[in-house]
Amino acid sequence: MTRRERIAALAQLGQKLKEQNDYLEAVMKRSAFNNPWFTLDSQALAIQAIAGHFLDIQELEKWLDGYDVPELTQAKTVGLVMAGNIPLVGFHDFLCVFAAGHRAQIKLSEKDPYLLPSLVKMMTEFDPAVAGYVTFVERLQAFDAVIATGSNNSARYFEAYFGKYPHIIRQNRNAVAVLTGKESHAALIALGQDIFQFYGLGCRNVSKLYVPRAYDFNPLLEALHEYNSVVLNDRYKNNFDYQYTLMLLNKVEFKANGCILLTENAAIASPIACLHFEYYDDLAALNQLLQENSAAIQCVLATEAQLHLPTLPFGQAQQPTILDYADGVDTMLFLKSLEV
Fold this sequence. Notes:
Oligomer: single chain
Shape: globular
Helix content: 25-40%
Low-confidence stretches: none
Order of helices and strands: HHHHEHEHEEHEEHEHHEEEHEH
Strand order of the largest sheet: 8-9-10-7-6-11
Number of strands: 11
Structural class: alpha/beta
Strand content: 15-25%
Largest sheet: 6 strands, mixed
């Protein structure tokens, strides 16, 4: 396929995802039955973000122009080991490989086995040649490069298995938020989206807060209570109850509002239904701390905080653009290097 044909197939998919689609709705219901974390609302949120941020034809053209992607590419086979923590979390990797003109050999997560194949099926209906660029496998083989996403533990196995090939191997990361105590109620409501969307399971979900000493948590807890519908998900509620009991038994101090547990903890990653926080005394020292922990941080959210590093406004953590590469590693430059 030419670059123009690939972009056309992606743009057509983007348009199709914005329309009512009985086939996709059936797939979403099957996915929700397979994985109760993947509610219909969560899947719709992921699909809308993909259609709105990744598949606009003009943005695709501009994006590929930035990497001088030619009309014809000598295709390599790139193995993709996908995570399954949130719906379609590996779509951006697929998008990069396909848009660059390479073949994607995809090992899906058992937590998310239906959504991406359904989108690829829709693309093949627009252009049957798409089928030659995507295969779904149980085990990667005969590939030229690998992009693998998993936990810190699985990353060690990925290094052992794929280390001799050109590769990108990703580990656990989370988002953090910096508060000053001056945030409006609307800003704290927006922060709630960054915490609760996808039940906090995404690498871009906020799992840790940095707050000034003497911070008043009451306005935050009140704002976050707006998201108390998360406890209607049995799995989330079970995690909440478990963590609540654990903290009581271990006499750990915490703050709660019925849907989230806040506890002081230096760790960036927090358990489901929990949110860690840490006090800071001055922004300069905090800036240094964030830089030292950058390998564990996917993105930083802040409003008035004067930090010497990139930040996002509250409410934007789960709205990455096509240029927001996971772990800050430029996937397209990696794919470009395969052409040498």
